[in-house]
Amino acid sequence: MTASDVAFLGLDEIDGRHSLFIQKRHCTPFGFLYGGSGVAACAAAAELVAGRPLVWITTQYVGQAAPDERLELDVEVLVHARSTTQTIVRAHVGDRLVLHATTAHTDRPVGDEAWWDAMPDVPAPDDCPPFALTFDHHGDESFFRSLDRRAPADWAERTPGRIAIWARVPGWGIGTPASQAFVADVVPVAVMTGLGRMTGATSLDNTLRVVHGEPYDGWVLLDVEAQGYRRAIGHGQVRLWRPDGVLLGIGSQSCIVRSVPRVIPDAPVPG
């Protein structure tokens, strides 16, 4: 966790308890808390309490929160051993539980490192056009405004359900666990493109495993892969790569894919 994590997210601390006053920039175009914002807030709060770098977080979404509500982040330390800490984070608005997370942290020496995969061969960010979804309207104040995203011009013609997206967050480099969690909530995009319908989706869960958690200021490649779909539930994973081929983290996610597009409040009318 870094000061930039706290500053970008807008975490508050009062008497050792952390919270997030939800703004439109933390939310989806549909007006509710973006899952990546919630997981990032849980990750940052857990690191602040544990005092150790986060290496794993799994989150389940059980409710929604909206702008102008305060999300309280209650961190309970389950184990604080010689080099490993495990916590539970309950994120709630008043008595309403919104999401809960389980985390693991360690300050073991870095030592050797390895990964058994390779970054996809795609054009550099400067050679890719902007990537936007059908419900990404530039006039809104959603989390999309915090992100720069680009994808190869022929991404729709590549392997169905597989997409590589360059991403960066100006003013907040992607590298820390919280920042990785913020951008890794992207599996539904691959599922919907694989199905051939961009109708919107609701996350059920989100897991992030951090390989490299050091701050990094630059583009990150999101290698997103849909893996299965049944009963309106899609599953998949995302690998986060630095341009030099270093694996930052691995995310996995399940989501409910909508059968019809969801209406965006106050969206501009085509015409």
Automatic annotation (TrEMBL):
SUPFAM superfamilies: Thioesterase/thiol ester dehydrase-isomerase. Pfam families: 4HBT_3 (PF13622), 4HBT_3C (PF20789). Residues 29-102 form the Acyl-CoA thioesterase-like N-terminal HotDog domain. Residues 125-257 form the Acyl-CoA thioesterase-like C-terminal domain. This is Unannotated protein. It comes from freshwater metagenome.
